[in-house]
Write a structure and sequence with these properties.
The complex is a heterodimer of chains A (about 120) and B (about 325). Chain A has about 120 residues and is mainly α. Chain A has a single domain (about 1-110), classed as Up-down Bundle (Methane Monooxygenase Hydroxylase, Chain G, domain 1), CATH 1.20.58. Chain A is built from five helices and no strands. Chain B contains 15 helices and no strands. Chain B folds into two domains: about 1-80, no CATH class; about 85-335, no CATH class. Classes of the chains: A mainly alpha (about 120), B mainly alpha (about 325). The interface between A and B is large, with 64 and 84 residues.
Amino acid sequence: MISEIIYFSVFVAVGLTVVVLMLGIQKLLQTKRHSDAKLSVYECGNIDVVSDPRIQIKMRYYIFGLLLIIFDVEMIFLFPWAVVFKSLGLVALIEMLVFIMILLLGLLYAWRKGVLKWT
Amino acid sequence: MLTSVELVEFAAKNGIPIWALDASIALVLALAVFSLCGLGVIVLVYMERKVSADIQLRLGPTHVGPRGSLQLIADMIKLLSKEDVFPKHADRWLFRLAPALVFIAAFVGLMVIPIGPRLVVQDLSVGLLYVLAIPSIAVAGLIMAGFGSYNKYAMMGGLRAAAQMVSYEVPRALSVIGIVMLAGSAKLSTIVDAQGFWYIFLQPIGFMVFLVSTLAEINRVPFDMPEAESELVHGYSTEYSGMRYAFFLFGEYIALISAAALTVVLFLGGWHGPGPELLGPIWFAIKFFGVVFVIMWVRWTLPRFRIDQVMDLGWKVLLPLALLNILITGIVMSI
């Protein structure tokens, strides 16, 4: 377990080093000239942004997020079940079917309610 | 695991702690994986350009190096010497961290993929879960890029990336459950060894769902909603230039590498093939480039979906299909 964590952190460290190194090289090679127009945000030729781009996005978004959490948890439950499925057999399949059916009913309900419509 | 008994004894004799030994081996392996995936990116970018050129009846790059094969090196030098433009209103930390996060998430995901018998950095027993989970952290980087650049196009791109990856995460993970059931393990090398008969034949529905949702997960056309250059300029990376932009590109291609390698491992029998075991990596490479070619072929022949079509496909078609696949697999295995 410890060794796996060490491997993971070394990989992250190598990735970070590469990023820092490349950006450092770029810093040495670049020519920097200041200009107001260059630093302004790109938006259809206007010199500056018209309004704040950090707008509120619609609520639909939040329901997709909720659905993801529900099904992701289901997936996490399914993985250990699938690993030992061979030795458990039919009973485990029926039990898991009940579990999936409940979630599937939830998805159908959301579908009927028009939650899955992206407009 | 490459830690051999002799190395451990050597370390114990010279008073080197085990973690230092692990860390130094990990460092060597990480550098090896990095050079391999760097080479992979160079090859894939060249391949992408030539394949797209062939499909569109063009020549592609021809000038730099033999048949234009050094074009990416030239591009890299250009990107390295570009000015690091930092937009006026951008959020300092989000803007800086985003490309690094996208790149690192994709790179770290390569850790568990076996390319030959025992040729793997860390053969985790939850390898499959790891390789599905870690590369999708990149979506946080895309949202950060979108939010940090203070640009409407980038914002839209980042949010679309989030919606899309959130939707396709579920069918992608559910489509491989059938494989875990058949192999009885989530360890990638065990899954490869269990494939006397390739899983693409035993799990055709699972393969289709996996391939389509993988395309969406790595934001390739027809699912490149986050970039969509015809409507969103360049999506989340609109404000980026120079090396920071290059890291987004790297991240994208490393994600392609790991997705194609995962497809080979899960469905196409990994390194198995006729001939001695030593030929394993070569068979793996052949299958890998086959999968990559199919993904590129799809990219350059299909038009882009609309965002609502993308969401519909994910939730209303792929998710029920993936669940159906689990059901069929379970019933067939119980009989």
